[in-house]
Amino acid sequence: MFTDKNIVLIVSGGVAAYKSAIFARLLMKQGANVKVVMTQAATEFVTPKTFEALTQHPVVTDLFDAHNESMIAHVSLADWADYIFVVPATANILAKMAAGIGDDAASSVLLARHTPVIVAPAMNVNMYENPATQRNLKTLREDGVIIIEPAEGMLAEGYAGKGRLPEPDEILALADLKLRQQTGRLAGKKVVVSAGGTVEPIDPVRFITNRSSGKMGYALAQAAAEQGADVTLVSSSELPAPVGVTMVPVQSARDLLAAMTERFDDTDVAIMAAAVSDYRVATPADQKMKKNADHAGLTIDLVENPDILATLGQQKTTQYLVGFAAETQDLLTYAQNKLEKKNADMLVANDVSKAQVGFGHDTNEVTLLQRNAALEKLPLQSKLALARDIMNRIASQVEGK
Ligand code: PMT
């Protein structure tokens, strides 16, 4: 989101101002051009020289700065900016923003702005919880300002509470996500993805599962979040959650069915990347099963699990439904059959007998089958690159609907 973008970074006066130097550096590492505006109070915590050295641009601290090239620096800075960040944002600058006051360089840039503004409040917990601050934050949200919530933790005053500035990399990741939620191709859409192999108990210590790692489903969830969707990932895998994605942990196929059907009515896109066990143990034992004394073999009765994709296919109204097919032979015949039988809109077929394809790998190669469209082969690539390609195809189908 920030490569080649012009960013005005406003630093207001709080102890956390030192983190904003690291934040400026991170923005520049992303390829952004950064110009800094400081309030007078901020200069008590960090000197403008620090930011000048980092950004290679003069820092604006004064509305009527004689050294500034522009007579009306606040307006030209606001015009120049693709995005404006306020990091850290004190209660004072939030109040000025909410009231539309422009009595110094920082607040005047904010008053003249016409591009997205992202603020990261940081202050004492009592100042943060003060009704006036909460009222101001509500006003700013209604005005379309993006707020990065402060974190809980030890404050400069020596006691814990909400008000700590999140770490610069977290601010960057959350800002990126929230901007995409305003401008991405899937902005305003709800996407639910399932990932990982289901876990069917045999007894309290044993279970039936498969080789799915969850990587493909997680990559799809990340790709959907990158396009601005509100994403829920229903997963049995314990991989770290992609930024901004809501996790719903599940184990068995029946857990997964419940989690998917509960959300399906309120979903725009549902993607079944999970490897669901077709069968489960009819009656899992309550206690750990013991070896037979006579060394006889063991037979476990299995019963069929519900077919989740087919169930969603039957319930489908406006949702765009995507299934996968993991095959070791006759890939396209089986995949076409699944597309039709399960009433999906898209089937992503992977031949898991091939090297580097499917279960557990970091790469995958698939063929996309869609109704009334030609087959499309997506070559072997990382699961994330592939997920981005798949999500672009999905976005083309649901965008604007
Ligand atoms: O998790 P990774 O290690 O990254 O591996 C990725 C993957 C190989 C698991 C993934 O790319 C994949 O192919 N997922 C689907 C695996 C699978 O169960 O395929 P299937 O052909 O058996 O099932 C067809 C479709 O029906 C799938 O969308 C599956 O989620 C769904 N299904 C299957 C059985 C069942 N009882 N209910 C279902 O909903």
From TrEMBL:
Gene Ontology biological-process annotations: coenzyme A biosynthetic process; pantothenate catabolic process
Cofactor annotation comment: Binds 1 FMN per subunit.
Example GO molecular function: FMN binding
SUPFAM superfamilies: CoaB-like (SSF102645), Homo-oligomeric flavin-containing Cys decarboxylases, HFCD (SSF52507)
Residues annotated as domain DNA/pantothenate metabolism flavoprotein C-terminal: 186-396
Keywords linked to the UniProt accession: Decarboxylase, Flavoprotein, FMN, Ligase, Lyase, Magnesium, Metal-binding, Multifunctional enzyme
Cofactor dependence: FMN; Mg(2+)
Transmembrane regions: none
One Pfam family named in its UniProt record: DFP
Metal-binding found in the keyword field: yes
KW Flavoprotein (keyword) present: yes
Domain Flavoprotein: residue ranges: 5-171
Similarity comment: family membership: In the C-terminal section; belongs to the PPC synthetase family. In the N-terminal section; belongs to the HFCD (homo-oligomeric flavin containing Cys decarboxylase) superfamily.
Matching NCBIfam families: coaBC_dfp
HAMAP family: CoaBC (MF_02225)
Protein name from the UniProt record: Coenzyme A biosynthesis bifunctional protein CoaBC
Annotated source species: Weissella confusa
Gene: coaBC
